[in-house]
Every structure is written in structure tokens, then in C-alpha cells.
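Reply to dn_fold:

You asked what the input looked like. This is it:
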Amino acid sequence: MLATAVGQQGAFDRSRALFERAVEIAREQGPSSVLASALFNLGDLEYASSTFPRSLELSREVLDVFARVGDAQGEAHARIAIVLNTTLGWRSFGCDSWDSRGNW
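and this is what came back:
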């Protein structure tokens, strides 16, 4: 994906804009694996940029989209992203506990 290549070169703002556009276009088609993938990649970029609240929000949406399209493997990947956000990412803010929905 172009957005991924741009991000790997360190142009995170441009990469974010491209992923956001991909999400926008995919949303017009309704829930799909394409939408879930675009959301997942945007969430990954937000995680790498230490924007953990946004990454967690996107990961939760990814989980919902994968569930709606019946992609169990995608759901598993989204759950891993949620765990990473709630255990690794948020700990950098000094938080040390969460409720069953992943809220600090």
C-alpha cells in the first residue's frame, strides 16, 4: 500500500492522510475486509506514533467490522491490537489497570 511505503520513509503525516482517505473510500462501500484493513493500518500507524487513544478506538472499530463480515482471523488480530493498546501503549501514560472493556 502506498500509505505504508510513505510511512516507512518517515512521512507519518502523509501516510496518515492516505490511510484516512482509504478509510473514507472504503466506508462508502459498507463493512468489508477492505475497510477493516484500512482501519487496522491506520490504527497501527497511530500506535507507532504513540497516539494510543486513537489507536485503541480504531482497533475496536476494526474488531466490529471483522465481526460483521465474519472474519474470525481478523477479529483475533484486532483483539491483539486492543491488548497491545491497553497493556503496552497506555502504560506509558502511567496507567496500570483497566476494566473489562479496555478502559483505563
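The helical segments are 2-8, 12-27, 33-48, 52-69, 72-89.
Hope that clears it up.
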